[in-house]
Write a structure and sequence with these properties.
By secondary structure, the chain is α+β, with helices and mostly antiparallel strands. It is about 15% helix and about 35% strand. The structure holds dinuclear copper ion. Dinuclear copper ion binds next to strand 7.
Length: about 160
């Protein structure tokens, strides 16, 4: 098969760039030891149901008036399935998974996390509007992925 000289240069250039980009990703991940965004805590994913505070997921009020919300994301549900939060509450979410990677996205907010087994991910949000917020899994996690959601009521 005859390939034009310029065509061959471009193909060589294209494959070379592909190798450079993939190599950069590999180098960044392994040589730099990049991990999922967390930095908070690690947890044994086989013992989530027995590890406080994830043995009793839910909302806790702190002495300074803010809240902490503990969630377990597993195929194919969030625990707790509904949570009621007072209007204006500052809530720090903590979420982990005992099985596979899930997503944790609260619609109409900027709470958007990846839930990785073995890690506790966390993000804080202030709820300044009343209403029902949908919490959805936005990482494909299996055949029941589309049914994985929960609700947060802000009253
Ligand atoms: Cu859990 Cu998708």
């Amino acid at each position: 098969m005859h390939v034009n000289k310029y065509e061959r240069w471009w193909m060589t250039f294209g494959f070379a760039m592909l190798a450079v980009f993939l190599g950069t990703i590999g180098f960044a991940a392994f040589a730099d030891n990049i991990n999922p965004p967390s930095g908070l805590a690690q947890i044994d994913p086989t013992k989530v149901a027995k590890t406080p505070p994830f043995d009793r997921p839910g909302l806790r009020r702190l002495s300074d008036g803010s809240y902490e919300a503990y969630y377990v994301a597993e195929v194919f549900e969030f625990t707790p399935t509904t949570m009621t939060v007072p209007m204006g509450a500052k809530v720090t979410f903590f979420v982990t998974s005992p099985d596979v990677v899930h997503g944790f996205y609260i619609a109409k907010t900027d709470v958007n996390m990846m839930v990785v087994p073995g890690w506790v991910n966390t993000q804080t949000h202030v709820f300044n509007r009343r209403g029902t917020y949908l919490l959805i899994c936005h990482e494909y996690c299996g055949i029941g992925h589309q049914d994985m959601f929960a609700k947060i009521e802000v009253r």
